[in-house]
């Protein structure tokens, strides 16, 4: 009897250990099952037919909305019988929070979000929270067009992509000016600092709460650090404490020479665009240079608007689409993501009268005819050539660096 009790005790202990292990591994096993449920692309396409993709994305640009709802939506319907529903949001975090809420509520296979336009801190939140569907790149035929050897594509603001998102397009910060008004705009951060003092009231930038304003502040931070190299990788409080005072000193020294003597900062990039359009300031900037041409065509900016990069480089990044772990329409969403990488979709997006966005794919991986069509695309005279801008591209920082810089600006400059 004692032997049976001992044996039963061992069995019970092993069973308990197994159940604990099973509970720990269940989410991973479920994800693995999701990844392995399709043997090839044909099976994915077949399962996708008749499906729906709820794409949550920033909806603040009419041309982008039209491209997604009109062009991409029509192509997915015609080619694969997939219905694309674009859900416009003001901030990507809104979609991320929906997925977080669903996970907390135990909604693990019937989520309301299928696809998110995402990068940076929002990607980090979802990746660290195990909120992403990953490991499907090998299924996507158009993945072969992506240069995953490029660190700026393989890493999203310093975090490895790890097959958890698909690149959609690339962007890089650039400056714009009215060539009929300003003959020699400043071509480096050092020149800009001097130019602002020599041309009081002609320059300003949005507060750090605005995406583009935050990027401009990071350029000054890079300048204070002697380049971004010292800032790459995980956040380092000691390095931050050594560099930040130099950056705040530069920005505070510039402040009296800004628009309205720096008493207030625009709260959004749209406000800076309006100041430039009204000739209240002489310089404008944006993380998406295509907007310069769009604003000229829409009669907002003067036809003599021109754009340029900096001799010491400007910050660039890749933005992506990601599939939440609890999307109920993974097959249809993978087909949509694959189509976004196609030559047709990337070429259409690159047209200046559509969006003018730089392609996420490596054009050199296309056949000669397709590559030639990209090369022949007309470029708006207000927009700097992406390949020229890319020659001096600076990397983005880890989100923890960005948060510290934004908070530091608010406490030491913006207050």
CATH architecture of the largest domain: 3-Layer(aba) Sandwich
Distance between the termini: 78 Å
Topology-level CATH name of the largest domain = D-Maltodextrin-Binding Protein, domain 2
How many helices? The count is: 16
Please report the total strand number as a whole number.
Answer: 12
Low-pLDDT windows of residues: 1-36
Number of domains: 2
Largest β-sheet summary: 7 strands, mixed
Arithmetic mean of pLDDT: 90
Q: Strand pairing plus helix content: what structural class?
A: alpha/beta
CATH class term of the largest domain: Alpha Beta
Task: Please provide the ordered H/E string of secondary-structure elements.
Answer: HHEHEHEHHEEEEHHHHEHEEHHEHHEH
Q: What is the CATH homologous superfamily assignment of the largest domain?
A: Periplasmic binding protein-like II
- The rounded Rg comes to 24 Å
Percentage of residues in strands: 5-15%
Helix content: 40-55%
- Principal-axes geometry comes out as globular
A few lines on this structure:
The chain has helices at about 1-35, 40-50, 60-80, 90-105, 120-130, 150-155, 190-200, 210-225, 235-255, 270-275, 290-295, 330-340, 345-350, 370-375, 385-390, 400-410; strands at about 50-60, 85-90, 115-120, 155, 160, 165-170, 175-180, 285, 305-310, 315-320, 360, 395. The protein is of the alpha/beta class.
């Amino acid at each position: 009897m004692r032997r049976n009790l001992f044996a039963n005790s061992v069995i019970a202990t092993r069973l308990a250990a197994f159940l604990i292990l099973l509970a720990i591994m269940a989410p991973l096993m479920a994800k693995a099952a999701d990844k392995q449920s399709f043997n090839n692309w044909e099976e994915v396409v077949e399962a996708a037919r008749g499906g729906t993709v709820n794409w949550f994305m920033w909806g603040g640009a009419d041309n982008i909305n039209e491209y997604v709802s009109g062009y991409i939506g029509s192509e997915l319907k015609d080619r694969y019988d997939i219905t694309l529903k674009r859900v416009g949001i003001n901030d990507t975090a809104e979609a991320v929070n929906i997925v977080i809420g669903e996970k907390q509520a135990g909604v693990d296979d019937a989520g309301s979000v299928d696809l998110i336009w995402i990068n940076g801190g929002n990607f980090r939140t979802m990746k660290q929270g195990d909120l992403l569907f990953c490991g499907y790149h090998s299924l996507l035929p158009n993945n072969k067009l992506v240069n995953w050897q490029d660190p700026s594509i393989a890493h999203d603001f310093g975090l490895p992509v790890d097959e958890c998102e698909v690149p959609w397009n690339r962007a890089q910060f650039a400056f714009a000016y009215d060539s009929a008004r300003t003959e020699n705009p400043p071509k480096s951060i050092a020149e800009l600092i001097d130019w602002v003092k020599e041309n009081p009231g002609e320059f300003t930038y949005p507060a750090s709460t605005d995406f583009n304003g935050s990027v401009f502040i990071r350029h000054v931070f890079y300048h204070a650090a002697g380049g971004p190299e010292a800032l790459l990788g995980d956040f380092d409080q000691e390095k931050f404490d050594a560099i930040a005072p130099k950056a705040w000193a530069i920005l505070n020294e510039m402040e009296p020479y800004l628009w309205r003597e720096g008493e207030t900062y625009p709260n959004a990039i749209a406000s800076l665009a309006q100041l430039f359009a009204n000739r209240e300031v002489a310089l404008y900037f944006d993380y998406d240079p295509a907007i310069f041409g769009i604003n000229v065509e829409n009669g907002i900016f003067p036809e003599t608007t021109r754009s340029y990069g900096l001799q010491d480089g400007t910050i660039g990044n890749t933005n992506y689409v990601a599939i939440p772990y609890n999307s109920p329409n993974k097959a249809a969403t993978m087909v949509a993501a694959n189509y976004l990488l196609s030559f047709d979709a990337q070429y259409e997006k690159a047209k200046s009268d559509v969006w003018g966005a730089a392609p996420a794919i490596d054009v050199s991986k296309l056949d000669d005819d397709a590559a030639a069509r990209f090369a022949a695309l007309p470029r708006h005279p207000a927009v700097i050539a992406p390949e020229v801008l890319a020659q001096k591209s600076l990397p983005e920082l880890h989100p923890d660096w960005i948060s510290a810089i934004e908070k530091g600006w608010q406490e030491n400059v913006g207050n």
